[in-house]
Amino acid sequence: MELTKSETEQNWYAVFTKPRAEKKVVERLEEGNIEVFLPLVKTLRQWSDRKKYVQLPLIPSYVFVRMNEKDLNKVLPYPGTVAVLKHLGKPAKVKQSEIDNLKILSDNADASDIISVDKVGKGDAVMVSKGSFAGLIGVCIKDGNKHRVVVQIDSLGSCFSVDIPLNHLEKI
Questions:
Q1: What are phi and psi of 104, to 5 degrees?
Q2: pLDDT of amino acid 146
């Protein structure tokens, strides 16, 4: 009996993990000789006594594995894994170009440079977290060009808007 191309072809798949278990899952899968990828970004974390750069997952609770679809069930017994991401009842394949893009992002960017598209949208209450307007609270009233938003601020009965970069905003 010959195997079909789909049975022997290796693709990338997203595996959902327990919260904050991504790095351990990657270690365990690598020990099991499974090709795995976890996009990490460097971010500055502050504790009460120090600041430190740490590597955090770009996409929390997900790792990517490259294998045959029929072998995906071998991933689930590893501690920390929860499920394989599915689309229409079948394991969702992740394109190689998407993995390449994630590799570029994780190799060349700090977390402060990367903003998820769904982080701030029209009508969201936002606070400016850095820059000359730090601490300002307002509402996102429209999406601007070049990854910027216009924020409407109600102050003393009047309104004004400012153009603020997305990486300076936090959704509240």
A1: -65, -45
A2: 45
Residue with tokens 């069930």: 73
Q: Average pLDDT, stretch 128-145?
A: 72
C-alpha closest to that of 7 among 76, 77, 96, 71: 71
What does 54-92 look like in DSSP terms, one character per residue?
Answer: EEEESSTTEEEEEEEGGGGGGTTTSTTEEEE-EETTEEP
CA 41 to chain centre: 9
Among 96, 107, 69, smallest CA distance to 85 is for: 69
pLDDT of amino acid 154: 45
Contacts of 82 (CB under 8 A, 6+ apart): 15, 16, 17, 18
Contact 64, 15 (CB under 8 A): yes
How many CB atoms neighbour CB 71 within 10 A? 12
- pLDDT tens track for 39-75: 998 888 888 999 998 999 888 899 999 999 999 999 9
Alpha helices by DSSP H, the chain: 5-8, 22-31, 96-108
